[in-house]
Amino acid sequence: MDKTKNAMSPEEQLEDLQRRFTLLEGERKATYETAKLNIQQNKEIITQMKEENKTLRNQIAEIRIEKPESLEKSLEKTMTEVQNLQRRIDLVKNENNKKREYLDQSRTRGCGRPTCRNMDTDVSDDGVDFPLPEGVKKEILSEAASSDWAKPREGDEVTVHYVGTLESGEQFANSRDGEALTFLLGRGEAVKAWDLGIPTMRKGEVAKFKVAPEFAYGPEGSEKVPPNSAVTYEIELVSWRARLDLFSDGTVIKTVVQEGSGWKMARMKDEVCLSLKVERSDGTTFYQVDSFEYVLGSDLLGPWSKAADRALVSMKRGGLALLHFAKTFDCGAEPQELSATLTLHQIYETSDISFKKDKTLLKKQIVEGEGHEKPKDGSKVRLRVELAADAAKKAIPCFEPQVLEFVAGEGEVTDAFEFCTAEMKKEEKAELRVQQPAQAAEPRLGLENLGVDEVLLTLVLEDFEPAKHAFSLSPEEKMERAASKKDTGTKLFKAQRWAMATKNYQAVSDMLSYMAIAELEGEAKSKAENLKLTCNLNSAACLLKLQCFNEAKAACELVLEQQGDNLKALFRRAQAEIGLKNFVECIADCKRVLQLDADNRDAKLLLRQAATAQKEATKKSKEVYASMFGAGSADAKASAEAKPTPKAEPRPRAAATATAPPAPGLLGSLYQHVAAFFHFWNRLAWSGMSTIFGRLMPRLRDRS
């Protein structure tokens, strides 16, 4: 509490307390009115939703009666459209990542002339197209492919075929009679017109350039070109390689040889698999690693780490780059020029697939699978288990590699394989790190008695048969599948496989959605509602075992929305509340349970636990408040704890002169003043009444 409040007199504090009471009462009334308004609005919304639901049910019934086949065809068409859209999204992502790569590359380039990438003027979507000067006229003879949108820039290595002619039509140069010409743009290795014109071309494009003398050979001319002669070049851009100055100081130059495939690019802190071979100028090997697992940003490659990090960023899987190290590069040995070949074999994607997201199951993708679809519950799966090792990657002796065939979601294999399979694509290869070995104790693999703290599994999803989507099932089929999932969940619950049981129960709740139940009528509808309610209750029980208290509370509240006095839901919510340390709410739920079932022993026990815990929490709160607002400030406490100076023992005093009690703190003083205030008004009221009766009684006697 601040100094101004400490300086307030007791009367002022009392007035402040009364003002706060008044404000709270006003807030309570406002909250009550707002709640009434919200309830009314919710009722109107519910009524409107019921009407819409009724209309939708009628429409669905008409579709099923009149055109049952058209609905199935419509669903298939929709799925096809979704798949096509996904492919288009992947293509767009790929193109965007290409553009992002070149934008990233542009930041590492210098700006020696107006064609560099980090200029902000005359920028087009696919690069920088500065207008050519008056002395250079371009005419496109053959367009490049639409997929080749990128253009070379200053410093890039380009390969071209060209034909040069004079104004008279006489040829003075033709590379098509021999080999294509390779050179660096913007380094003065070709005529000025080429440094200006080729950056406007794409791979595969053929263009004609009419060049004035000042942009060709000038007044000096050449062996075959007279002085001050205008020339015409027909140029085909055969290929080009981006060259990047990784540190903007010329120490490391990267040349992209192969872009790689896919849309994913390496980023800092990604785990990758690479090969790096560094050679001296005479071709001998200076440093080499093959298929090396490396984390960008680490120092696992020693002096080559920083250069590798810069080079790997924005590279794709299968990408290949050449690195040239200048003498000024610190390689940890005698300064010398070096060249290196860097290959990015794989970009690993590590994800937490555990039920509680507590990193007990970590899946690292080694080989990307096909397509986008993954096995769902009910899919028939072929999973090849190639290797089982401990944390030190030492093979487990009892392991027997084989192919596991099972139905996903049925609990036919242990949890580690179930959860990993659900996140894999066809022909995907992954490494699974299991930090709770019991989840990987699969008897068919000889892993039932694991004596290790951590298990590493290498898995390949060979194939799977896609299960039928829930939205394509009829209401009767949904009910049948939901009942089967509930039975599977019960079997797993008895086996104490809480996570898999919860997954099955939640699948039932998702399948029997509000819309799905609305399609049913009579006994079938009632049966579906009871099945969903039971699965929500069972799910809450499993979640309590897993100590997922928030999720368990949410599952109980789904039941209580339908049945407000459900004993199991109330009691399990109370268990979740005590797990969340919401003792007041737990006590309220326990009391409600005992109102409905006075002999419920579990509720009585939980109520005592919650009450004890609440007392402890209150006691701790009082201690905190006392330390903050009580009589013992830091100075007072320090003086109280100080050892007194030894004195002669005083003579005993009379009983009347006993030591006075310590002065109350602010809260204690406030309590005394409030009590005195009520005592004062009580006495005032009684004295007022006695005065009134004392005056009235003589008058009444006189009248009588």
Automatic annotation (TrEMBL):
EC assignment: 5.2.1.8
Location of the PPIase FKBP-type domain: 155-241
GO molecular function annotation: peptidyl-prolyl cis-trans isomerase activity
Biased composition (Basic and acidic residues): 638-652
Coiled coil feature spans: 32-102
Classification via SMART domains: TPR (SM00028)
Keywords: Coiled coil, Isomerase, Repeat, Rotamase, TPR repeat
InterPro entries, per the entry: FKBP4/5/8-like, PPIase_dom_sf, PPIase_FKBP_dom, TPR-like_helical_dom_sf, TPR_rpt
Gene3D superfamilies referenced in this protein's UniProt entry, alphabetically: 3.10.50.40, Tetratricopeptide repeat domain
Superkingdom as given in the UniProt entry: Eukaryota
Catalysed reactions, semicolon-separated: [protein]-peptidylproline (omega=180) = [protein]-peptidylproline (omega=0)
The name this protein goes by in its record: peptidylprolyl isomerase
